[in-house]
């Protein structure tokens, strides 16, 4: 794969792998999580997004009826989401921050969307990152080809593996995830020489119930997992849905109270696992 479709390259991130990191967000995901905070990551095609807060109403009172193209908009209120990058272009951007990686034990994290959907590009990118001594990580739902997962693991220091819904029928219905595939791939990644950290998004009514939490932990501790990240639900990405002209079904969903997050943390800790909130 010569190029990859990427929708953001975020520099100076303090999450997703430790230290100061550059996070490369790949476009396209096989899942349909209704709580997704990056809805612009879901489609495998370039899209147009409207950012109302930037609109100066230069051609229309309604930015959704603007006659300007994304290339003509003077403020970036209308812009394309998704750009093709070559490996060289990504590497050139990453190299700008190597001094920060070295001083903070940071590096580069591949995220999305689902980076495994553009796995050949990711493998070649990671190879080159390791050649120049950069720490590497990936954030994944585990939905990919098992042989490619074995290959990509050779060039990774850390894998941040998202666990969502463990009930097979509910997972298929709600987020289009095949739990059997995910589990088999997780078993394989734990056999590789890479640090694996499970992450659990705490989504009220979807993932936060005690039965689901216990199923996740009971599964992962079979593989000598000692640390888990929990990610409380937020509404930070909700405005993007309107900008993409999509419905957002969870607008009225309230965030978990701190006490409930602490309760879930305590449940996990009974299994002897360290729990990090966020990360």
TrEMBL record:
Belongs to the organic radical-activating enzymes family. GO terms for molecular function: 4 iron, 4 sulfur cluster binding; lyase activity; metal ion binding; oxidoreductase activity. Its cofactor is [4Fe-4S] cluster. NCBIfam families: PFLE_PFLC. CDD domains: Radical_SAM. Residues 15-274 form the Radical SAM core domain. InterPro entries: Aldolase_TIM (IPR013785), BssD/PflA/YjjW (IPR040074), Organic_radical-activating (IPR034457), Organic_radical_activase (IPR012839), Radical_activat_CS (IPR001989), rSAM (IPR007197), rSAM_sf (IPR058240). It comes from the Bacteria. This is Pyruvate formate lyase activating enzyme. Keywords: 4Fe-4S, Iron, Iron-sulfur, Lyase, Metal-binding, Oxidoreductase, Pyruvate, S-adenosyl-L-methionine. It comes from Clostridium uliginosum. SUPFAM superfamilies: 4Fe-4S ferredoxins, Radical SAM enzymes.
């Amino acid at each position: 794969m010569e190029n990859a479709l990427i929708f953001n390259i975020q520099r100076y991130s303090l999450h997703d792998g430790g230290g100061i990191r550059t996070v490369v967000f790949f476009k396209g995901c096989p899942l349909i999580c209704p709580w997704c905070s990056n809805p612009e990551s879901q489609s495998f095609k370039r899209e147009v997004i409207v950012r109302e807060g930037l609109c100066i109403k230069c051609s229309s009172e309604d930015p959704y009826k603007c006659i300007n193209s994304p290339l003509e908009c003077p403020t970036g209120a209308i812009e394309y989401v998704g750009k093709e990058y070559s490996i060289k272009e990504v590497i050139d951007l990453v190299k700008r921050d190597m001094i920060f990686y070295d001083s903070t034990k940071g590096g580069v994290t591949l995220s999305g969307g689902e980076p495994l959907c553009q796995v050949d590009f990711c493998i070649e990118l990671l190879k080159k990152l390791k050649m120049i001594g950069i720490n590497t990580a990936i954030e994944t739902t585990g939905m990919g080809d098992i042989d490619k997962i074995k290959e990509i693991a050779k060039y990774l220091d850390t894998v941040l593996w998202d666990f969502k819904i463990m009930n097979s029928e509910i997972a298929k219905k709600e987020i289009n995830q095949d739990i059997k595939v995910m589990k088999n791939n997780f078993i394989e990644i734990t056999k590789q020489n890479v640090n694996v950290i499970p992450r659990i998004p705490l989504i009220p009514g979807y993932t936060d119930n005690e039965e689901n939490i216990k199923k996740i932990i009971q599964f992962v501790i079979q593989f000598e997992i000692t640390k888990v990240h929990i990610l409380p639900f937020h509404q930070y990405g909700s405005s993007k849905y309107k900008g993409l002209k999509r419905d957002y079904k969870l607008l009225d969903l309230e965030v978990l109270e701190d006490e409930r997050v602490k309760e879930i943390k305590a449940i996990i800790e009974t299994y002897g696992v360290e729990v990090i909130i966020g990360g």
